């Protein structure tokens, strides 16, 4: 216990000197320290150490503060094998801070992966579309006057469409036990359907200018 007290007296004296920068007016080594002295001295020692000394390393990695500045955070650089200050809040190489956590160069950021700010990652935008067109766009494209009906007969089948012009789009379908090949041509008056059935075939169609 005596050795501990002597050691503590020395720490107490050093603490006073570090705080004031001068020798003790009342030599702390001349008095027997109490529990209160111990608590106060430890608090002062911790405060001095944390307020007056900068960290030179973290977990054994050197802290390089040569690029310290506003908007920068401490990140580990594998290239330099140091902890350095890096600009934050931007995607791409290097690191940054999101929500108080450090991000690495390979992490996804909105500025890079959602440039149109629609809350959908750019490469996933087409998941809601077909070649860039949404279902609502396709619905608009299908609007207009349609001629619909059935055409029955042997190859080829001619059917008047009544659109008053040459159709730009013709949809066809058949209801048969075996698959048949169907094609079509059109002019301003008629649709002409071609098929490979040996006999007659009924073709359902819809045509639009």
Shape: rod-shaped
Task: Let me know the largest β-sheet.
Answer: 4 strands, mixed
Q: Give helix % range.
A: 10-25%
Task: Tally the helices.
Answer: 4
Mean pLDDT: 73
Unreliable sequence segments: 90-95
Cα-to-Cα separation, first versus last residue? 104 Å
- Our Rg estimate from Cα atoms comes to 42 Å
How much of the residues is beta strand, in percent?
25-35%
How many β strands by DSSP? 14
Structural class: alpha+beta
**Cross-sheet strand order for the largest sheet:** 1-2-4-3
H and E string: HHEEEEEEHEEHEEEEEE
Summarize the structure in words.
By secondary structure, the protein is an alpha+beta fold. Among the domains are: 58-113, no CATH class; 145-208. It has 4 helices and 14 strands. The chain has helices at 2-20, 35-52, 110-113, 135-141, and strands at 57-58, 61-64, 72-77, 82-87, 96-98, 101-103, 129-130, 133-134, 146-153, 157-160, 169-174, 182-186, 190-195, 201-208. A 4-stranded mixed β-sheet has the order 1-2-4-3, with no helix packed on it. A 3-stranded antiparallel β-sheet has the order 9-14-11, with no helix packed on it. Strands 10-13-12 form a 3-stranded antiparallel β-sheet, with no helix packed on it. Helix 1 packs across helix 2 (35-52). It starts with a helix and ends with a strand. The model is unreliable at 90-95 (pLDDT under 50).
């Amino acid at each position: 216990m005596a050795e501990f007290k002597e050691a503590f007296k020395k720490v107490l004296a050093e603490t006073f000197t570090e705080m004031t920068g001068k020798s003790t007016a009342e030599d702390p080594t001349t008095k027997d320290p109490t529990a209160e002295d111990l608590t106060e001295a430890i608090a002062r020692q911790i405060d001095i150490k944390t307020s007056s000394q900068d960290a030179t390393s973290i977990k054994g990695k050197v802290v390089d503060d040569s690029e310290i500045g506003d908007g920068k955070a401490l990140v580990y650089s594998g290239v330099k094998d140091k902890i350095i200050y890096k600009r934050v809040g931007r995607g791409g190489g290097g690191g940054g801070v999101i929500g108080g956590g450090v991000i690495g160069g390979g992490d996804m950021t909105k500025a890079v992966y959602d440039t149109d700010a629609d809350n959908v990652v750019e490469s996933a935008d087409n998941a809601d579309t077909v070649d860039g067109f949404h279902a609502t766009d396709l619905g608009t494209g299908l609007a207009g006057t349609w001629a619909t009906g059935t055409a029955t007969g042997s190859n080829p089948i001619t059917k008047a469409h009544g659109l008053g012009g040459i159709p730009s789009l013709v949809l066809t379908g058949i209801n048969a036990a075996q698959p048949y090949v169907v094609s079509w041509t059109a002019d301003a008056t008629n649709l002409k359907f071609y098929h490979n059935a040996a006999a007659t075939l009924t073709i359902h169609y819809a045509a639009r200018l």
